[in-house]
Design a protein that fits this description.
- It contains 13 helices and 2 strands, in the order ααααααααααααββα.
- The protein has 300 residues and is an all-alpha fold.
- Strands 1-2 form a two-stranded antiparallel sheet.
- It starts with a helix and ends with a helix.
């Protein structure tokens, strides 16, 4: 696949998932009209988990893989891709024979759980470290955008907001698609860098502006996780009431996203058993990030 075609698919898929996230956010907002309702305080988490469920359903039924075969980060940067990636880490050992047998259900589940643990411990630590440097080293003492519990005001509304969500989602995913093409780093490494880039950009105001302009075209991306952790870190350093709630909400959200990955795995078992979703001579045929990067650097 040529680089032009790959970026085109990335823009379309990333933009579509961003616009879908904006629609889901608006639906959740309409449902949670009572300010005292607990879900009205966690709209951000509600949307991310909903996108995780969508990624799990499409992943378990073999549809999300078709998106991932056309783009690495158009499908992988939104949080729906987080659920799909966790599910894939369970499906891989489930479908591949090992030592004259196959790994059991719970061993495969552990593959996905371990991915969630090491990745989030890493990015949580890095994000809090960066927030601490900004607070104590750079003297930045204010941070107000706690995106898990309060929505931002947008410069546009109505259908235009869906358009800006689409454009923002498409452009953001294209940026990271180019990063993996140029660097040829593993996908997990680029995802960690993308997360921490949200932490680094948060004190500059760029992330807040992107969230305001692009709505959930930005907020559904993994970069927003870095911005949220930056703000949660500031809440802890400032002694802001509610810091514990914000942190707990984020941890619970990550836990729910793991469960959506597990749902992806279970749906695969129901539909495919031990067979792979795309197979040739018994081997899974899904382009790896490196293989996609190599392909993108060559003409069609």
């Amino acid at each position: 696949m040529s680089l032009r075609k790959r970026l085109g698919w990335t823009f379309l898929i990333g933009g579509a998932l961003g616009a879908l996230s904006q629609i889901i956010y608006n639906l959740w907002s309409a449902f949670c009209t009572n300010p005292g309702f607990i879900l009205s305080r966690t709209l951000g988490s509600d949307v991310l988990v909903t996108m995780g469920v969508i990624g799990a359903l499409l992943g378990g039924l073999g549809l999300y893989r078709h998106l991932a075969s056309r783009t690495t980060f158009g499908a992988g940067l939104p949080f729906s891709g987080f659920a799909f990636g966790i599910g894939e880490n369970m499906i891989g050992p489930w479908t591949k024979p090992k030592n004259n047998g196959r790994e059991g259900f719970w061993h495969c589940t552990w593959h996905g759980l371990w991915l969630v643990i090491w990745f989030n411990v890493l990015v949580f630590a890095l994000s809090f470290f960066i927030a601490g440097l900004c607070y104590y080293g750079a003297g930045i003492k204010e941070s107000t955008q706690y995106l898990l519990v309060q929505p931002l005001a947008h410069p546009v509304s109505g259908p235009l907001l869906y358009l800006t969500a689409f454009i923002t989602g498409g452009l953001i995913t294209c940026v990271w698609e180019l990063v993996i093409v140029i660097t040829k780093l593993p996908m997990s490494a680029v995802l960690a860098i993308a997360w921490c880039s949200g932490t680094l950009l948060a004190p500059t105001g760029i992330m807040a502006w992107l969230s305001s302009f692009g709505g959930w075209g930005m907020n559904v991306m993994i970069m927003n996780g870095g911005q949220i952790l930056y703000n949660v870190g500031f809440m802890f350093f400032n002694g802001t009431p509610g810091a514990g709630f914000e942190f707990a909400a984020l941890v619970i959200t990550i836990g729910c996203l793991f469960l959506t990955g597990w749902l992806c795995f279970i749906l695969h078992i129901i539909k495919y058993g031990h067979k792979s979703q795309d197979h040739r001579d018994g081997q899974v045929v899904v382009p790896t990030a490196k293989a996609q990067a190599d392909a993108a650097s060559c003409p069609a």
